[in-house]
Design goal:
- The chain has about 200 residues and is α/β, with parallel strands linked by helices.
- Helices cover about 30% and strands about 25% of the residues.
- It contains six helices and ten strands, in the order βββαββββαααβαβαβ.
- It has helices at about 35-45, 95-100, 105-115, 130-140, 160-175, 185-195, and strands at about 5-10, 15-25, 25-30, 50-55, 60-65, 70, 80, 145-150, 180-185, 195-200.
- The strands form two sheets. The chain has a five-stranded antiparallel β-sheet with strand order 2-1-4-5-6, covered by helices on one side. A five-stranded parallel β-sheet has the order 7-8-9-3-10, sandwiched between helices.
- β8, α5 (about 160-175) and β9 (about 180-185) form a beta-alpha-beta unit.
- The chain is globular and about 50 Å long.
Length: about 200
C-alpha cells in the first residue's frame, strides 16, 4: 500500500508545504528541529488539519480540503509512535501491547520480532529507553495499522539502544511491507534506514 501527501499548513510565521507521491517502504523526513517534520506526521494522523491539500492512503482519501473530507483519527488506521513513548504506567508491558490490539492480533509474534518477549511481565518504569521504544512500536503494530508513523524513534538513546530500535524498524520495513513515514534530524540514521529520504528546510 502506498500513500500520497500534498499538504500546506501555516503555523505562526512559517508555512509547511510537502508533496510526496506514492510513498512506499520507509520514507524518512530529515531536517533540523522546528522545520515542521512532526507537524507532517500529525497531519497524516489527523491530529493537525492542513490548510489545504490532500492525503490518501491505499486509495482511501484521509483528507481533502477541496472536497471537505477529513476522516477522524480513529478511522485513519495510522500506527503512531510518538517521540515520548506514552506507555501506560499502570499496565505491564503485555497489557500495553494488548491495549488497542485488534481481535486475534499475534501478540507473541510481534513481541518475538521486536525481541521484547522477556519484557512482557515488566512494568514500564523498569524499562530502558530502547526497550520502551520497542514496546511502543509493538503496541502500534498490534492495532493493525495501514501505515506506521515514527517520530524520532531513537532520540536520546545511546548507540547500543539506538541500534536495537533501528534493527526493529528494519525488520518491520523488510518483513511486513508496511509503509513507514519516519522523522529524524540525523542524516546518517536516515541513510541507514530509508528507502527514500526527503530533506525539509526552513
Amino acid at each position: 500500500m502506498a500513500f500520497d501527501i500534498d499538504v500546506v499548513k501555516r503555523l505562526g510565521e512559517r508555512e509547511i508545504a510537502l508533496r510526496l507521491a506514492a510513498v512506499e517502504g520507509l520514507t524518512v523526513l530529515f531536517g533540523p528541529s522546528g522545520v515542521g517534520k512532526t507537524s507532517v506526521l500529525n497531519m497524516v494522523a489527523g491530529l493537525l488539519r492542513p490548510d489545504r491539500g490532500r492525503i490518501q492512503a491505499g486509495g482511501v482519501t484521509l483528507f481533502d480540503a477541496a472536497s471537505g473530507i477529513d476522516l477522524p483519527v480513529e478511522r485513519r488506521r495510522a500506527g503512531y509512535v510518538f517521540q515520548e513513548t506514552r506507555l501506560f504506567p499502570h499496565l505491564r508491558v503485555v497489557g500495553n501491547l494488548c491495549y488497542g490490539a485488534v481481535k486475534g492480533a499475534a501478540v507473541g509474534r510481534v513481541a518475538a520480532m521486536l525481541d521484547i518477549v522477556p519484557l512482557l511481565p515488566r512494568w514500564p518504569r523498569t524499562l530502558s529507553g530502547g526497550e520502551a521504544r520497542r514496546v511502543a512500536i509493538g503496541r502500534a503494530l498490534l492495532s493493525d495499522p495501514a501505515f506506521l508513523l515514527l517520530d524520532e524513534p531513537t532520540a536520546s538513546l545511546d548507540r547500543a539502544r539506538a541500534d536495537q530500535v533501528e534493527r526493529a524498524i528494519l525488520d518491520i520495513r523488510d518483513g511486513l511491507g508496511l509503509p513507514i513515514l519516519m522523522v529524524t534530524h540525523d542524516r546518517a540514521e536516515a541513510d541507514r534506514l530509508a528507502t527514500r529520504v526527503v530533506e525539509m528546510v526552513r
